[in-house]
Amino acid sequence: MNGDTVITLKNVDIFQQKHLVLSNVNIKINKGEFLYLIGQSGSGKSSLLKIIYGDLYIGNGEGMVAGFDLKKLHENEVPYLRRKLGIVFQDFHLLTDRSVEKNLIFALRATGWTDKKLIDSRIIDVLEKVGLRSKLKKMPYELSGGEQQRIVIARALLNNPEIILADEPTGNLDPNTSEEIVLLLKDIAASGTAVLMATHDYQIIRNMPSRIIKTAEGGLLDNVSI
Ligand SMILES: Nc1ncnc2c1ncn2[C@@H]1O[C@H](COP(=O)(O)OP(=O)(O)OP(=O)(O)O)[C@@H](O)[C@H]1O
């Protein structure tokens, strides 16, 4: 793995229980790349993401993610791998009973941050990155769906991840708001974080083309056109 590669999977077989979902997966993703992950429902997109964030273990093959060797990954190292990853999933909602600021403080404390000054300045940094500094004191229900998704992205950026995994981040958003979210993710990629975004939204891909990988027929295809 050279210094610019943040994800390498080599001849990896991906199982759910005893069922082989994807076989012989080969992929390299570099620092700062933005990729779409497509594939029919049930074809293995989530399983691929799970291998990357250490929720499924590698059987056959080799994998390196953000410097962690997936083959040797011990259960108690998974939280450290996750700190190198920003996760933006549809079901990773904001906590609805507290403000944006308190959501972000909660996420930082959970990953070991204790210094109040550093916490405050990190929160301002990530809110500026997503263009929502003014929403610091708002409750999630006072924000639009797109704004909430930006805050989820801000939360994913807190620990300065090497990779963002986004699973259908625009699934509940209207087309214009969806494009803004993808533009934001592309900006984040341009500043050095790799972004892998699973989506079923081909319109977005057509409007904002990028490298596409696809789960199909029990394998992973690279550089696909749609
Ligand atoms: N926990 C599990 N135990 C057993 N089989 C599973 C489990 N999770 C998923 N599978 C099976 O693995 C295959 C791939 O599922 P996966 O969730 O990776 O697909 P997907 O492409 O992400 O689908 P979707 O787009 O609907 O989210 C499916 O056949 C599914 O039934």
TrEMBL record:
<dbReference type="InterPro" id="IPR003439">
    <property type="entry name" value="ABC_transporter-like_ATP-bd"/>
</dbReference>
<dbReference type="InterPro" id="IPR027417">
    <property type="entry name" value="P-loop_NTPase"/>
</dbReference>
<keyword id="KW-0067">ATP-binding</keyword>
<comment type="similarity">
    <text>Belongs to the ABC transporter superfamily.</text>
</comment>
<protein>
    <recommendedName>
        <fullName>Cell division ATP-binding protein FtsE</fullName>
    </recommendedName>
</protein>
<comment type="function">
    <text>Part of the ABC transporter FtsEX involved in cellular division. Important for assembly or stability of the septal ring.</text>
</comment>
<dbReference type="GO" id="GO:0005886">
    <property type="term" value="C:plasma membrane"/>
</dbReference>
<keyword id="KW-0547">Nucleotide-binding</keyword>
<dbReference type="InterPro" id="IPR015854">
    <property type="entry name" value="ABC_transpr_LolD-like"/>
</dbReference>
<dbReference type="GO" id="GO:0016887">
    <property type="term" value="F:ATP hydrolysis activity"/>
</dbReference>
<dbReference type="GO" id="GO:0005524">
    <property type="term" value="F:ATP binding"/>
</dbReference>
<dbReference type="InterPro" id="IPR003593">
    <property type="entry name" value="AAA+_ATPase"/>
</dbReference>
<dbReference type="Pfam" id="PF00005">
    <property type="entry name" value="ABC_tran"/>
</dbReference>
<dbReference type="InterPro" id="IPR017871">
    <property type="entry name" value="ABC_transporter-like_CS"/>
</dbReference>
<feature type="domain" description="ABC transporter">
    <location>
        <begin position="7"/>
        <end position="226"/>
    </location>
</feature>
<dbReference type="GO" id="GO:0022857">
    <property type="term" value="F:transmembrane transporter activity"/>
</dbReference>
